[in-house]
Every structure is written in structure tokens, then in C-alpha cells.
Amino acid sequence: MVLHEVLVPERDAGTHSMKATARDVEEKGRGMCSTASGRDRSEALFGSANGREYRERVRSQYSSAKGALLTVSGFLSGHESMAESYFKRGAIDVRNARRILDVGCGMGRFVRRALQYAPPDATLVAADLSWAMLERVRLRVRDPRLRFAVADVTRLPFASESFDRVICAWVLEHLPQPELGLAELKRVLCPDGKLYVLVTEATVPGRISAWLWNCFPQRRDRFLGLCEQVGLACNSELWWTPVHRWLRLGGICLELHRK
Ligand SMILES: C[S@@+](CC[C@H](N)C(=O)[O-])C[C@H]1O[C@@H](n2cnc3c(N)ncnc32)[C@H](O)[C@@H]1O
User: What is the pLDDT of residue 44?
Assistant: First the structure.
């Protein structure tokens, strides 16, 4: 199974220039860093045996049949309906966006909806560590505005300030150090752009979900602190319904901007 065209914007040029198979890009991505500070950060995590182990674990989990179950589990957990509700009421707002990035796009839950609400001349880049997940999106979502990139959230192959909307849903809890991903998401976000981050919260249902998907649930106050630490301010905390807010269900869903 090969993705025929994976477009990766040329680093620091902001144009889509490189075409390769997803496997090629994945291989190149192992050594790719977009900035010196990105290199330092990623070396801290990915130069180590733990980092390699982490990436292989994520890839093998999501590239396997388990990854394909994301849609089913999304229906059962309510994440499908929640995503729909956020776009429909404009809580995740892509209506005037020109360049959108969805990092850790999985089966394309947010990709499909962002394309539905984005302007006809927008470009959306779907990025994921797992080329198999991108292939699944390519087979399910046909849209000329869509591009693909095999990429790691801690070292994205895009120029700084490339996107006016960035979405990263249920990804950062996979990282031993989520702040590395947050800093990189901030880097590629335009100064007046909006970043939507959704992560599993350390509640009882969140811990069960994290156990099933081998990730680290986050404490809300600590996670908000990490956002502050990397220079991201929280515009609003999103809740699916008032009942979810009251019961603290649905995960940590934030709209952030650069400070
Ligand atoms: C739980 S799924 C969420 C998918 C999608 N965002 C959604 O809401 O349906 C997590 C996805 O993040 C990807 N992922 C995990 N770690 C990543 C990393 N460091 N960089 C990029 N993608 C990553 C996985 O391959 C997987 O597709």
C-alpha cells in the first residue's frame, strides 16, 4: 500500500514542492528537523532509544488494524458527534481560513469536517506519523484541496507561521513530553491564527481510553500550564454540552493563540 503523492512544503519556503511516496517521506522524516531549535528539541526526545521506541510503538499501533478501528471507537466514545458539533456551531472555526493543518489526522475525522466548512480556495494539509493512516484518509476523502505529509508533531516540515488554523486532536497525549509538540504547533501557527488542541483528560473515562490507546492522560491545570510555558494563550475551553462541562467529560479541548 503506497500513497502516490505526498506533498511536503519545502522547509522555510512555504511552498508545496516535494513529491514522494509516503514511505520515502517517512524515511526522510526520521532525520528531518525544520529549525535548529526544532533539532535540539527533537534530539532531546527522538535521538534517544526511548524516542525511537515511542515512534515505533505509535506507528505499529495505528498502522495496524487497531488504527482502522478509530472510526468505530469514535462513534462509541461520542468523539464523532462532538467533532461535528464543534464545527457546526463554529467553536472550531475554519470558515475564513486559507491554510489549515491537521496534525495526527488519524482516519480524517477533523479533515473531512474542516474541508466541509473551509472556503473553496483553502488548502488543508493532513499530517500523521503513520503513513498507513494517511493512506486510509486518502481512500476515504477525495478533495483537491487536500495535501498529505508524513510528519512528526515535534518537528514539522513546514516554515514558521505557515498556517492560519492548526488542529491537533488526541495526539499530544501520546508524547512523553507534550510541550515539545505544543511548541512546534505554535511555531507553524500564524501570529493571528487559531490552534485547536484536544487531549485526553485524566478523568476515569479518560484513563480507561488512555489505557486502551497506550497514551498519557493529562491533568487540565498542568496542561494549561504547559501551553503558557511555550507561549500559547487559551482563548477558550471548549465543551461539547453544558452537561459535559458540569461532569468534566469530553477531554481537554482548547482554542489557543500565540501570546
Ligand atoms: C487517537 S488518533 C487521533 C486521530 C484524529 N486526530 C482524530 O481525532 O480522529 C492519534 C493519531 O495521532 C498520530 N500520532 C501519534 N503521535 C504522533 C506524532 N508524534 N506526530 C504525528 N502524529 C502522531 C497517530 O498515528 C494517530 O493517527
Answer: 47
CA of 10 to the centre of ligand 1 (A): 22
Range of the domain at 95: 34-258
Residue 242 lies inside a defined structural domain of this protein: yes
> Could you tell me the CATH number of the domain that includes residue 76?
3.40.50.150
* Residue numbers in the chain where pLDDT is lower than 50: 1-47
Give the Å distances, CA to CA, from 198 to 150, 195, 218.
20, 10, 11
pLDDT digit string, tens, across residues 177-199: 999 999 999 999 999 999 999 99
106 lines ligand 1 (CB under 6 A): yes
Q: Is 108 left (phi over 0), alpha (psi -120 to 50) or beta?
A: left
Phi, psi of 152 (to 5 degrees): -100, 135
Cα of 17 to ligand 1 centre, how many Å?
A: 24
**Contact 58 CB / ligand 1 (< 6 Å):** yes
Domain for residue 69, yes or no? yes
